Structures
1.
Amino acid sequence: MTKIASIEPILARVGIRNQLLIKVTTEDGIIGWGESGLSAREESVAATIRHFAEFLVGQDSRKISRIWQESYRSQYFEGGRVLTAAMSAVDIALYDILGKRLGVPVYQLLGGRQRDAIPTFGCCTGKSIDEVVDNARTLVESGWNSIRINSSGFETGEIFDPRASLTVAAEELIRIRREFGPGLCLGIDLHHRLSVAETASFCNMLPQGTVDYIEEPIRDESPEAYASLRTLTHIPFAIGEEFSSKWQALPYLERGLTQYMRIDICNIGGFTEAMKVAGWSESHYVDIMPHNPLGPICTAATVHMAAAVANFSWLETRQTSVEQLGFHDPVIFPKQVQMEGPVYVVPDGPGLGVEVNEDAIKNQEAAHVEPPHLRRPDGSVTNW
C-alpha cells in the first residue's frame, strides 16, 4: 500500500511565472506534492519526471534516500540541473507523503524544529533610484529588518552596460544605508552578470559598511574565479542558488568562498541533498539563506528545512507589499504556509501543509517563457 502508483508533472501559469508541480500518489491514495525550480526550462524537467516515473512507479514511497540515489546513479551521465530539478520535485513529494502517512510535519522527519518562526528578507526593485529607495522604506516600515535590492540599474531592457548600471546600484545602496543606518541588513542581487574585475570595481564604489552581502556577483562554474574575487573585497558573498548537488557546493564551503549558502531545495535535489549541504555549511560556520523564488510548495518545503537546521539566517520571500507576483494564489493553493509580518509561521500539520486545487491549476495554461537575452552595448551576448 505504500508503493508509488502514479507520478504526474503539472505545468501551469501562476501569477507572472510558470510553476512545475509534481503530484505523486501512492497505492493507498496518499498524495504528495513537490515543485521543480528550473524556471523557464520546465518542459525539459517535466520530460525527465515522466522518464523517472517509468522506474519509480511500483517502488516503496518510504525509501526516499534510495530513490534519490537510483534517480541520480541510473544513467551514465551524472547529475545536471535538469535531472536534479526533477529529483528535487520527486524528493519533496515523497517527504510530503511520508509526513502525511505518519501524521507529522516534514520537519519532524528532519530531526524536529529548532525555531517556531522563519525570518525573511524582503526583496525590492524599481524603475528608478527613488522607487527602489521608496520600496525599501515600505519594507522597513512594514517590519523587515533585512532587505535585498534588485537595482533599477539592471532594469535596462535588452542592453546591459555594467559600468553605467553599477553606478546606479551604488547610489541606491548608499542612500538606503544612509536613511536606515547600520541596524538594517542590506544586500544586493547582482544576478551573476559581472566579471571579477567589474565586481571588484563595484565594491570599491561602496563606503565600508554599506552592504552586508553581495549575492551571485559572477557565474558559479569556476570556484577559482570566486577565489580571486575573494581577495579583492571584504564584503561577504551569498552564493549557491545555482548549485545542483552537494559536490557543486563543496569547494565553496571548503575554500571559504561563500559566507551565506543560498541553497535552493527545488534545484539541488530536495530535502535529501539540501540537508547534507546545510550540515556541511554548519561545520564551516556558514548560515543558509535559502533561495525561494517559486510558489507555495517551494516555500513550504524551504520553511520545513529552515525550521530543522541550526545554521539559518533569512529566507527569501516574494510575498511583500512591494511585489505583486501572484505566485501564492489562494484559489489555486487554498492551504499554504502563512506569514505574520516579516516571518513565516512554521506549520504543525502533517506533511508540507499545502493543499492544491487541481481543477484550478489544470485550467492555468502554461505560457512559453524565454528569459531576456541580454547584450552589451557593443552587441556581444552577456549573462541574464
2.
Amino acid sequence: MRDSSSSATDTARAAGRTVALGMAAIVLLLGATGVLLFLNLPSAGAFNARVESIFVENPLTSQAEVRLLEILALSGTAFSETLRSYRVVIFVLLVFATALLLATLVILVMLVTLNRRMSEIERAGIQVTALVIDRASRKVWLNDMEFTLTEAVVETLAALAEARMDGEVLSGAEIEGIVSGRSATDCDEAAGATRIKRLRDALGNQIVSELLVKNITRQGYVLAIDRKAIRLA
C-alpha cells in the first residue's frame, strides 16, 4: 500500500495535469470563438468601399448628388471608427472571460483536491507525531498543541494511551473502571461513553477529536495514534 505522502504527491500531479489541460481547453475554445467572431465581423472599410463603388458605377452630375455622396463618405468613416472600437471591446471581453474561466477552473480543482485530501485524512486518521501526557500538571501535548485538562479527562486519555501502547481496545465500562478504580463489571458502558465525550469536548476541535479517539463498533474505544508516539509522565 502506498503511504500518505505518495498519495498526496499523486493527487497533486493529477490536479496539476487537470489544471493544465483545462486551461489549454479554455484558451483554445475562446481563441477559436474570437477568431470566428472577428472573421465574421464586417471590415472597417467596407462601408467606404461600397460608397466608392457607387461613385464609380454611377456618374454623378448634380451638386446635390455630390453632396449626398460626401455625406455617405463621412458616415462610412464614422462607422469604421465605431467598428474599430467594437473590436477592441470584444477583444477585452474575451480576455476577461478567459481570465474568469481560468480562475474558476483553478478554484474548482483546489476544492476537489481539498475534498480528496480531507477524505484521505478521514480514512487514515489524524497524523500525530507526539502525544505527551503529564498527569501531575494535567497537561497534554498533541503535536505542537498544548491542552490543560481536568484530572478526570487526563486520566481518561491516559487510560486510552496505555491501552493503545498494549495494543488493546477499551470498552466504555473498562474505561470507567480504570478511571474510577472500580471493577469493569460494576461499571456502566454509558459512563465510559460520557467520559469519552468529555475528552472530545476538552480537546476542542470536533473533527480532530473524532479522528483521534475512534469508536470501533462492538469493541470499544482506541486512540488512532502510533504507539511509539505516546509518552506518559
